[in-house]
Amino acid sequence: MKTKYSLIALLFISLNIFSQKVSKTEKKILSSVTKNNKEAIQFLEDVVNINSGTLNLEGVKKVGFVFKDAFDAINFNTQWIEMPAELNRAGHLFAETNGTKGKKLLLIGHLDTVFEEDSPFQKFEMINDSIAHAPGGNDMKGGNVIILYALKALQENGLLKNAQIIVAFTGDEESTGKPLTISRKDLVDAAKRSDIALGYETSTGFNYATVARRGSSNWEVEVTGKRAHSSGIFNDEVGAGAVFEMSRILNDFYEEVRGEEYLTFNPGVLLGGTFVDFDAKTGKGDAFGKTNVVAQTAIVKGGLRFMSEEQKETARAKMREIVKNNLPHTSTTITFQDSYPAMRPTEGNKTLLKELNQVSLDLGQGEVLAYDPGKRGAADTSFVAEYVDALDGLGTMGTGAHTPEETVNLNTIEALTKRTAILIYRLINQ
What we know:
The protein has 430 residues and is of the alpha+beta class. It folds into two domains: 2-213 and 343-427, Aminopeptidase (3-Layer(aba) Sandwich); 216-340, Alpha-Beta Plaits (2-Layer Sandwich). It is built from eleven helices and 18 strands. It has a six-stranded mixed beta sheet, sandwiched between helices. Strands 4-5-18-17 form a four-stranded antiparallel beta sheet, with helices on one face. Strands 10-13-9-14 form a four-stranded antiparallel beta sheet. The relative contact order is 0.18.
């Protein structure tokens, strides 16, 4: 009996602390989230079942318009922004309220997934009472739903009338349209009108948020060697051939460039032989060669991840220097293409994490810590981090993102939506 009464006492104390830290208005917000949670999960299933692989332009737009209708219904001003045809990308959905009160917020999601129309993984399917297989449900249609239903709870309680909130759902996060000056212009412009950005990419854990993300850059090395009979390889007339030169370069990258914290570089595609052909749009290529012919051509395409522009440029300089030291009768070029900038762990980001942590503690959801940026990829938040304080990784819980085993944890959506709704409410009232 003593243990029983102790547990009851602890529960009473916990509820009393909760009631003191969460205002009456905030309790109404929480009640709205609870009331709408079943609808939110059904909404997630509906949008997951619409294929929106990045290159399925009509599918991306269709999902965008489902969200557009939902934002229209809660009195946001919505706009579908088409991308130029030459980008081969669908466009972006923006939804906005125009107020002057409190912090100006930018809430970021994306409509596209890595699962194209030819993927066998297409449908939302329950595994058990809380977990569903869902292509793009975790990355990141679930995060979009959290944004929508947090704002819906605030709107239902008349709390958005004087706020400036911009919701930006891009249609090409998984494979950004080039040039970035066009495909990310609207997102950057929105950041310049905002104070804070909150990104709803996949959560890295219920009690983590992202204050820093590494940037990404593409690189390509192309080697030309002297085509000849293999019996002459290594002599003064023929030299080393393209494949040996490429092997030297990659080995020197491994030995001399790696080692810095947060710096990684990955050769993702390698082709070598007499002739090679690579299609950048599909990521597919082929090579032709014979064992008795010295390879004439080799190409490698890779990615570079970094925590700052300085780290990126230092790595590039080392790579350029290595490429210059050609083996006999070979020549090499290396090129770089910027993709995502780095999101640095600024003091503003860390302060924003403290505010999120306080919300979580007040809701009895536990402490929220900064996630290791070395374990995260790039995301749209990186494009705006130069202009605003930012947090990311606020989306749904799940596993297996970018794989046919992707899941979303439906049991955590209500709690995460509550956390977002209260955070937004407090920020727009600062």
